[in-house]
Amino acid sequence: MSKQIAIYGKGGIGKSSTASNVAAACADEGYRVTIIGCDPKSDSSITLLRGRRIPTIMDLMRQGVDIEEEDIVFDGYKGVKCVEIGGPEPGIGCAGRGIIVAISLLKKTSKAIEDTDLVIYDVPGDIVCGGFVAPVKKGLVSEAYVLTSGEYMPLYAANNICKGLSRLEMPLNGVICNSRGAPNEENIVSEFAKEIGSQLLAFIPKDVLVQTCEREGFSVIEKEPGSAIAAVYRKLARSIMTKSDARVPEPLDDARLRELTKI
Amino acid sequence: MPVKEKEPMIMHPRPSSIVAALYTLRDLDTDVVILHGPPGCCFKHARLLEEDGMRVVTTSLDESGFVFGGHDSLVEVLEKVIRRFNPKRIGIVGTCASMIIGEELHEAVMDVQPDVPVIEVEVHAGYRDNTKGVIIALESALAAGIISEAEFERQKSLLKEATMVEKRHGAASKEYLEPNRGDLKFKVAGRLLELMKQGKRGLNILNAKKETAFMFADINLAVNQIAEKLGSPIINMANLNEDVGLPKNRRNAREIKEELKNRGMDIHHITGGLDEYPVAGNSANQIIGEKYSDYDFAVITGVPHALPMDNINNMELFSITNGPRQVIPLKEMGHRHVMVEIDLHPRTLGINHIVESEFGATLREMAKDV
Ligand SMILES: Nc1ncnc2c1ncn2[C@@H]1O[C@H](COP(=O)(O)OP(=O)(O)O)[C@@H](O)[C@H]1O
Ligand code: SF4
Ligand SMILES: [Mg+2]
């Protein structure tokens, strides 16, 4: 049985970099990994493909071509299967419906979400409508992770996501802190995790290597395997692959959240 | 990457996949169907289906349902349906509105946990071919253990044929089809009587879709009665095999066959079941090729365009359809006389006996003077 995880968090907080580095780290360990970019920005897999942008499922659907597995599933770093769902242009059509249709098409044409050890859904920061939780509702996601820094706004978003998860009765497997260099960050996020009934899985420091590798089209795992930050991603990857404590989170109220970020 | 041959856009409105799913649920003897969507969706057919004893209710999604989701309404209606109707089999059918906003029908079923089977049909009206609605409904029926794998495969291949029939010569054959009332019935009846008076030999073929046979059969019955009176040799063929198809279709085939027999009509060749109209035309074609290719005329009721032209090309054809958009394609195929039984379908719901057709009545009336 494969692990099917989704990483949630505020836009720009680092979901895609974390997802692709975890994917690469797991591939290094010999796992078969699939990464599915659900963000209309379609930038989840770019650092696994040496900067190459792959055609998105929705681009192909719009062109009305017959879609086969090899048109939408691409091999990236160490055989990581990369899929980008894509979306309509901002302000046009219905991106949520697009995700629903694309996921069912992917399921029909490819075994990439079944014959694998780990599927990572890289979802957009804002769950704006029903379509964006389609992978969860269709039973395709079995584990959820929240990524946040120790600042108020990302924590606010993380807390909101927990509200959504608890409404869907979806358990949370852990909180990941992607540091922005805010003071006392690790303690704040760790406390947040505890209070919502979860645990802090990893503290990823802010490291310029993430961005320089990204600019060249690589994960740090591939480009800077010996770096300290690569070791952090590897450790996170290992705990994702081995741990499985999960509980439906209990979101905090806003007052408590504000207080927490004051520490 | 092979570019899909883009099929031409068709502008005239056509049957809806949601409606097709509703009729399929009826054929599966579903007691109550919940349409998860806006109150007016499929109103006309929902109403008609009640004539057949199937209840259709709606979750009445409104603007606020579109924005905030309709899960709670669906749960509420499902609970109410169970209490009010005590159904043995429930259907839940999606609509464009609920499917676009990502409603999960299954979630409501999990919440309510009814102790009778629920057929969940995630369908909307945006499919090119309405047969897609039937297929989705049957897939769910298969998943719910209501039909067998073999029946599912059989239905699926029939539906594929049905889609092809419509593409070749039916409602999906042209970018735009003008509706047409067809030829005047009393004129055509006059011509048919004339041929029979001359003792010409004719084929009398029923190739109807499901319950529409309750009225189309009346035409074949009238032709048979009058031919007998006038001494014109007639061969009767009908897709009334009662041993195939979903429960309702079998029942209806039996009812019609018995009534025809009681009213003096022998069916010489059974060409298939009531749901086999897309392929029954082929077996009729084969029988004609073997035995009757030199006959003078043929009366074809129901879905005449599903009958290949190979062996009837030289006959004078009298065809009766219920689709005003079917007239022009039939004429183009070479059917000399084409008539439309307007509003036939509604009058074939909720009944178990043959009902009078306009052309049948015209024939009988004019035959009195012969
Ligand atoms: N730990 C980190 N250290 C430095 N930069 C980071 C780190 N994590 C993410 N970034 C950078 O932050 C930016 C936004 O990250 P991204 O993964 O695209 O966010 P998201 O997918 O959540 O919108 C990227 O340029 C990325 O390289
Ligand atoms: S658009 Fe779709 S949901 Fe709306 S009434 Fe028509 S069929 Fe029903
Ligand atoms: Mg991203």
From TrEMBL, chain A:
Q: What is its EC number?
A: 1.18.6.1
UniProt lists the family membership as follows: Belongs to the NifH/BchL/ChlL family.
Which N-terminal residues, if any, form the signal peptide?
none
Q: What is this protein called?
A: Nitrogenase subunit NifH (ATPase)
Domain of life, per the record?
Archaea
Q: Does the keyword Metal-binding apply?
A: yes
The molecular function terms of the Gene Ontology recorded here are: ATP binding; iron-sulfur cluster binding; metal ion binding; nitrogenase activity
What is the originating organism of this protein?
Answer: Candidatus Methanoperedens nitratireducens
Which keywords fit this entry according to its UniProt record?
ATP-binding, Iron, Iron-sulfur, Metal-binding, Nucleotide-binding, Oxidoreductase
TrEMBL record, chain B:
The source's superkingdom equals: Archaea
Record-linked InterPro entries: CfbD, Nase/OxRdtase_comp1, Ni-siroh_cyclase_CfbD
Q: Which SUPFAM superfamilies match?
A: Helical backbone' metal receptor (SSF53807)
Q: Name one Pfam family in it.
A: Oxidored_nitro
| Organism, as annotated | Candidatus Methanoperedens nitratireducens
NCBIfam families under this entry? Answer: methan_mark_13
**Can you give the residue ranges of the Nitrogenase/oxidoreductase component domain?**
21-147
Q: Would you tell me the protein name for this molecule?
A: Putative methanogenesis marker 13 metalloprotein
Gene Ontology molecular function: oxidoreductase activity
